[in-house]
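User: Structure please.
Assistant: Input sequence and predicted structure:
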Amino acid sequence: MESLPEPARVVQLPDGTYVYADQLPAIHQPTAPQVVHQHIHQAPPDRTVQRIALGSGVGAGTVAAGVYFGPLLVGALTAIAANLAILAFLAVALTWGVTTVVKTVGGANGKAVARTVRRARRRR
């Protein structure tokens, strides 16, 4: 007797007819506001690499270390790249400034030096 399904609930509509509760017309369905949790600011974590690693026999500690230190490594490399970009920009700006000053102040000698530097760059 315990394996029998639960009997379907029967409800009476306002017009007096009886229907099963799971077959109610759409207008008689109880409507509750739907709550949608949407996380737009981040993508769901991709666990493919961890699953492959665990399946190939790598221990859970190694996978956990990869999960923890992976983003830290990406952050550190990004910071290093940003520092190098700033240094490159400074080098270009300083070179341009020195070249401009030499051309302006140096007169004929400055123009000759600038011409020599320009020719040396072209030969490379």
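The chain has a mean pLDDT of 77.
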